[in-house]
Every structure is written in C-alpha cells, then in structure tokens.
User: Fold these one by one.
Assistant:
Number 1:
Amino acid sequence: MTATLVLRLAAPLQAWGTVSRFSQRDSHTRPTKSAVIGMCAAALGHDRSTPLGALAHIRFGVRADRPGTPVRDYHTVGAGTYPVRPRDVITDHRRAAALSRQMEAATGPAFGHHQIDNWYGAPKKISTDPGSGTLVSAELSRTALITERWYLADASFVTGLESPDATLLQTIADALEHPKRLLWLGRKSCPPSGTIAGAIQEGDLEHALTRTALLPDATETAPWAWIETDPHTASSTPVTDQPVIFHPEQRAHTTRWERRTRINPEPSAPLWEVIP
C-alpha cells in the first residue's frame, strides 16, 4: 500500500529553472521534481553532499490550480559610473587614490570633501574613465552584461509525493512546517507563503490529487496535472529533472517519464486549510 503527501506551493513569485545560465535564467511553467525534492532535503537539514537515499525514489506529481503568469526581470551589469562611500575610501587605498585624482581634476585637492558624504556603494575594481574622468568598473567599463530572469507570478500548485513509506512522508511533512534550512520555490528570492504540507492520503498520486480540493485561489476548475509514470505508458513524455546528487561539483540529473492529464477534484474533497 502506498501513501501520498500533498503539498501546497504558492508565492508571489516562483522560479523553476531547467536550463539556467548566468545571462539567461528560465522558469518552467510548473514545479520540477528536482526542486521539490531539494526543498524537502533542505527542510530535513541535509546539505548538498548528503546522499538522497529514499528521497530519490519518491514518485512525483503536480497539479496547476493557478498556473500564474510568466514575468521577465531584466538586468544590466556594469558599464556604469559608481559613487563611493567614505568608509570605502578609507579602507581601500585604490579607491582613495582614484577618488582623489577625480576630485582634484574637478575642484582641486578634496579628500574628505563634504561632497563625499552623499556618495555610496562602489565596487572594488575601479578606475578613472579617460574620456569623462568619472569612476568606472575596471573590468566592465565599456560593455554591459545583459541578463534575463524569468519567474511565475501569482501561481499556486498542489504537488504529490508518493511513497510506500508513510513514516518518511510524515517526517517530510513535519520538516516542511519546521524546516532546518531556509526554503524557497526554485530560487532564493522566492520564499513560500502560508502552509506547505497538507494531508497524507492512502493511495497513489492521481487518487490523492483527485481527493484534494482546489486551492482557495484556483483559477482552473479542472486543472492540468503531470503525473510521474512508467516510460511505457501511452502518451508519456520524458523530463530531465530526476535528481541524482545535488553536490555543487557533482550535480547530476537523469530522465524520468510523466503523463499530462486533467484532474477533476471530487466535490466532497476536504477543503485545504491554509495557515498564513
């Protein structure tokens, strides 16, 4: 007999990266198994080098009650001029020398000048731009780096974790409500809101997702769900988000299979209790 722990994943912003690099950080349209298992491992107090053990064998499914809206966060890095805080000047002789040269060129000797009081936040590697005489980043003085980070805004999901070990699921549920490490929904800037852990139900993933009421903020009456399945199941598709190890130097994922289906929550399903 298997059991399924249902989780509520909701927040103003979520970010479920699949192929993220420095300049382009994407987000999947729904939570990934790797990210959710990683969140459970963090709640349990595991570090990235801890073997996943039984967590790797959990069967995963997700229901999109409120799919949310993709939003882009646009950044530029470098190529600007930078003000300087007095304490930076005092503690870094390179900044002091660069600032002195700039101020002397403009107004005469001025180290300690009252104008410095209104300046703040310079990077360490700075130099004087020969054209304008302003302070610029020594490494990024000419070309800005443009980055894009994608998020899901105003989304809510119900995920299911199926295992034959109900004790493991209860341990995970307790840990998610009293985590030993910080939790976030895919990215550190996306902390979860409200209650995460729901009920542990007897039965498999699809049964549990059907027996779980729609979330209070749901926009779908028959939401799509993605259920982990056997690779020989009809209409199943591969996804590369099965975690193997989270160690920064050995991080690895492999392929699992899932099928997409509509879920019609039963009218008699218990209401989801959300504790703010």
Note: DSSP finds five helices and eleven strands in the chain.
Number 2:
Amino acid sequence: MRIAPLMTRSPETGALRHVTEDLLAEVYLAPKAPDLKLADHLGPGAPWSDSFAAAPEETARAVEAGLLAVAHATPRLDPSDLVPEALPDGRARSHLAALRDLWRGLGALPGPLQAWCHVLHSSATAALEPLPLVGPDCPFATPAEAALTQTLRAHHGMADGPEDAVSTAAKGSTLHHLQESFGRRSGRIAQDASVSCYGLRDPQEEAEFAAALAQSMLDAGRVDHPAEIGLLVPDGAGYATALRDTFNRVGVPLSGLPATGVRRDEARELLSLLLVILSGPAPRTALASLYTAPHMPWSLETGRKMARDVIDRGWSRTASELIGPARELLDTLRPCATPNQLFGRLGAISRAAPTADLAPHFAGLKAVTGDDIDWPLLRRLAAPVLIAADGNDRFVEGVSLFPENALPWRPVRQLIVLGMAGRHWPRLPGSNPFFTEGEIAMIRASGLLLEGRQQKLARGLELFRRQLGAATEGLTLLVPAMDLRGDRLTPSTGLALIAHMLGAEDPAELVQDLRAVSPENWPVAATRPHPVPMGGAPELPEDGVLHIQRGLGTPEKPGVDLLRLRETKDGPLPHSPSRLETLLVSPLGWLLDELGAKERSWAPETLDVMTLGTLMHQVLEEVFVEKVPVPDDPELEDRVPGALDSAIHRHAAWLAEDAWATERASLLREARDVCATWAGFLRQTGATVLHNEIALKGDHTGLLLHGKADCLLRLPDGRILVVDHKRSSAGGRRDRMAKGWDLQVALYRSMLERATEETALTRLVAEGARVITAYHMLRDGTVLSDAEGGDVPRVEATGEDAAANAMDHLARTLSEVGAGTIRLNRAGDAQAFEKERGIKAYALENPLVAAFSLPEIQAEEDAQ
C-alpha cells in the first residue's frame, strides 16, 4: 500500500485534494458500486466452506480481506490476472483459484476498488475535470495503486507540489541521522540533545507526561506556540481519550482529535441482551445489564436498584411495581417459541423504549429467520461492535496529533512519540488469512506481487522514518512498561533499531526510567505523592476493639443500638440463625451485613452450594408429601425425576439448557440417592411427615428471631423431630456439635419455647410434645442430634449439649455489641475456628473483614 496519499492540484484554484473514491466516481461518472453481500456468495465447494458453516461473519471478513489483497496485487483489477494454474498443485493453488472464481461470480469488487476499476478502463475524455497529480511515485504502492497512478498521469499529467522532504533536522544532529537512515544500513552515532527517551508506567502516564512536557516546552521557550509541537500516537481509543483529558487539564489545545470519538453501539448491545433474555431462561446478569442499559423507560437509579435486586435474589420487587411503558417492556421479557412471537415482542420493546433506536436492526434479523428461530445466528448478527472514531478536529493553533497509520499533516519543531513498546512503530504486520509466507513467496515468484510480512514490515519502517521527518528540532520517545491491562510490554522494533543506531546494545540503555529518578531530575515539574502510611493498611486499635457511637447517646436521644440497625416502622427486623452464626464468628462481618456493606459482584448463575441445597430441599419436599405414607422404591424411582425437573424450573431454570445436561444427570443420581436414604430413615423410625418448610418465630433474651425448619416429623412415641436438611457430609457438623459450638440447635429450641407467632409446631409444643432438633446431612445420609435424640433409631447423638459454648459466647457478644463494642478478628481466626470449634468461618471471606483483621499475637511477640 502507498505511504503518501495520492494527491491532485486544481489547475484553477491551486488547491490540493486527496484522490478519493468519491472524487474518482464524480469525475469519471462511475456507476454506483453494488451493495455486495459477500456472505451470500460463499456457498459450498470452496476451501473455506467448513469455516463459513461454523463462523459465517468471521469467515466472510477473512475472505473479503483475502480478495482485496489479491485484487491489489493485480495490475488491471481483472480476475484474469490471477493465474493459479502457474502454481503447483496444493493449498496455494486451490485458494487462489477459489478467490478468482469468487471475484468472477461477484462481478465487482468491494470498497473503492470498483471505482478504480472503472477509471482503469476509461479514456481521458471521460473525465469531467482535470486531476493532475502531484508528488513522485511511491515505491510501496501495490500494482493496482501503481496502475491507477499511471492511468491518471496519462489522462491529466503532473502538477507542481510541495517538496517531499524527510530529513528536516539540522545536519549532524542525532535526529537528522535517524531521519535519513532509520530502517537502512548506517553507521552508529552518539546521542545528543535532539533525541531523548523516557520510560513511563503505562499509556495513561504517557499522556500525562506528554501534556506536562508540552506545557514545559511552551514555558521554557523551546517552542513559540502549541502548533510547533506534534504527538505521534498509536491508534486506539485509549490514547485519544487520555490525551484529550490530560491536555485539557493543563490548558494546552490539542488539534487532530477525532471529531467523534469511539462510541459504544448501544442499540446492538441492547438487542443482544434482548435476544439472550427472549430465548429463555433469562440469566440474572443479562437482566441486570438490561435494567441498567441506557434509553430504558425508567431512571438510572431505578435500574441500578432493579439490577442489585435481581443479582442478589433473582427477582426485583422494584421491577414488579413499575407501570406505564416500563411495565409494557418488562411484560414482554418472556421466552419466545416462534418468529412471530419474537419480532412482535421486539416491536413492543422498541415502542416502549423509542430512544433506543432498535427498529432499524430488525430487518436484518428477519431476513435470516425462516419458520424457526436460529438463536445462535441471530446473536452473532446482533453482536455489538465499537463504532469507530470519525473525522478529524483539526485547527491551526493546537498541538498536532498525528495518527499511527498516516504521514504527519504538518511539520513541527518538537515531536513526541508515544507508545514505543509492543506492536507499534512500526506496527507489526499480521498473518495473511489465506496464505502462509511460503505460499506468498511462491505466488510472487509466479508474477502476482502479493504482499507478505516482509513487504509490510519494510513499508512500516519507511512510514515511521518519514513520520520522524516531521520534526525539525527535537524528538522525544516515550516507552510504556505495561499496557492499560497491566500486561508487560517489550520495546518496539523501532526503539530497538534506534538504540542500535545510537550505539546501545540493549534498548533499555537508551531509556531513562523516570520512576527510578527523583522528580527534581525530571524534564518537567513534578511532585511525587508521599507514600501511604502502613502501605494503606488501616490503623487498628491495639486491643482489637472498636467503640461505635460511644458516649454520643443522651436520655432524650439515645445512641444507635447496633442490634436494631435493620428497623422498619413496625419495629426491628428479626435475626436469623445464620446472621447470629456470623456474629459468633465475626462481629465486624455481622455489622457490615447489617449495614448492607458487602461485595455486590455480578456473576452468572452457577451450580454453587446454595443452589444445590435449594434444589435438593425442593426435591425432598415434593417427593415426601405431608401426611402421606412414605413411597415404596418403584414409586420413589418414578417421582424423583419429575420433582427434580420441577425444582429446576422453579429455582434454576437455566439448568434446563442443553449445556447443563451432564450436571442434570449427576443431580438426578444424587437426588435418587438422597431420597432413597431418607425413605429408609422414615421407614426405620416409623416417622410421619407433618409439615415441610415451616416458619419459626420467637425470641432469645429479648432478641427477635426467625427461621425456617425444612421438615417436621412425628415419631411413633409422639415426639416431634425438627429437621434441617444440610447438603454436606456429617464430619464438620459432627465436630462442631461435639465441641458445643452448634448455635442453630439452641436457637430453634428458643423459637419453639418462646414463640412470637403461633404455628402448627408451636401448638404441638404448647400441648406438651417433646421436641428434638436434628440435621439431615444429605451427602452421606447421616442424621445428627444432641443428647435429646440419642434413642431414636438411625439418629446419631453428638454430645450432651451441642450448643453450650456457642450460646455462652453469643450471650457475651450480644452484650458487647448492644453496648456498641465490636471485637476485630485476627488473621489466623479462620484456621483456629475450624480447628477448635469445628466452624467454617465464611464470614471472614469478606474482604473488608480481612482488611480490618489484626495480626496474630505470636507474630507480634516475634517482632518484639
């Protein structure tokens, strides 16, 4: 490809213009290029057929790139210029022949080449105005570009143009040597003040340094005005955005930024979300993303609340209360079975959210939809892409921004090159989508001058040399150590060549790493922030005790009661056993939960412990119905699959998808084993299922409690067995109960003995029924209880009082917390709790709890 753009000078006005596709089409009255849908021509029989069947869009783009590459390599833009027969049998010949057949079948070429082809086959008299060319031939022009240049020169002749000077710096300077010899054989030269090279952390720091350096040059008089400074910048939205911000911050105008920056394709993003949701079942993350998407018929704050709700619970009360267009949109978010349903609902959504501009995208989806919905195809067609930056906001007064892939559009005194690491300067050529380098060499030997990596690299080196020629006095190279993702970068090819030309054995010798020198030695004024004390770790009290609202209460206005933080107009909300277990492990973790200060990460649905437990609970509830005899083995075998399907539909609809077939099969085996074991227990004990999922409400020393028992059994002797199903093995729970640290057993008993709401179970207790609380461990079928259940068949008693230590510790902790005292954890508590109490300390996994944990006492003593 050409380095310098093809230019023409008007004989009447003397104005210079780029020779563009539109200009050629206007001057030569070229017919409008057809709208080629390449994918419609990539049928079976071609070498890329299998790839097209698997990835049609990606394959179509690769084929188009291959077709354009071979077209550029022809001198007449004629498919007859491709002669695959000149190649030996093999992959290169078959692919080249397929591209020739495709070209012939299309009858035209995509992009500007169709206008070029028209010009190549036109006479000089067909032109409506003269287009005399300026500038010499480009040695890197493709055969098609060279043919177009020769044809235009034959039709219109040449005109005077600006000198194509490259070596603009003072002779004898390092910069002049680079401008003359970069990418070519040359001797070495010592570095002088005309070239400097600095190492920065990443592109953001590069942008900040470039802005500060430009301001410093202006202040020091090295340049008279901003237009005498140029920035050579890698392509990409990251650099453009960072430079816009940093130059605005220092008050230096920046000329050459895109008139319209890179933008998100919001319409296609929304359409992609809708296709995922309407195909059903809707993932939580897709719903949350939809709720927070722009152009929705609700406020951004409402959308955020709905998203938090659906991520936390799978549904949103806020969403259920919306009315008007919002209600209409939400009501359409149901799985579709037919194309009519799909496009009817998409139309309703478009009307409910008119500013989302969805309607223009429906025609393309309808065109590929027959009697059935091909969801994967529709999702591929609707996949969002970034909308590229458009135009250039250029003005005379600002610092000049030069893009990576073009020559600078004006000379400058000082040139700053950013991004001298990774694949830039020159941009390393990618692989040809069709041919290997060996095949390209074979094709070039046959006469078709197809560009390979060698030719592209040579062009890139020459382009960079000519870009360096924009500077007349000084060159500053900025080298980032890592990209914006934090990945390490290696020096660019250009930096390595410059280092070699300046006598350095390694590019690192050329780079002055600003992070390794004090700010007073920087080329710009800088202040380094003082280090954060203790590396950012919080300063914690030595005794590990926090006093919340201590001493602020008065008789007229008492201080905050930490036990009543979750309070409504009807009074404080009750605590669940799981919340109090958190308090037992970490008062700070409990306090953060009460305040809602917890990590709210978005994650897709997964078959985690909670989901597995919920499914197994539901299966047991449906298979073992209240006050119905225990099913026999054949009946059990028949009931379990339906119960599991029902549980999946109710609690984890996403598990019904084909991708989860293996997991469903494993769950079915587990459900059958669990149900068979539980049926054996019920038969052996003679127990009757009285209730499933029964609510419990009561109080413990004035603290309101609420919970839910999974199953209520009546034993033959009249005793009541309150069962909590746990999807785990018995080992951990047995250890906890034996050591007296099981809190839930005692709290269930408190809610039964001091109930605040009457239920069937509390009535039985009031009538004198003895109650036993127990755990059914689903993984191994063990039923654990304290000493109360020691004489029940198949029940394992773990100790005299499974909650003695837990209740004592809870009483002390409640007293402290009620007085506003929070004891912090220590770093080794997780291991200590598991070893000494049999408690798995999940509360300590909260990052905030870990951040406010004290070091181990032993570690402090060793340090002293």
Note: Residues 698 and 755 are 4 Å apart (CA to CA).
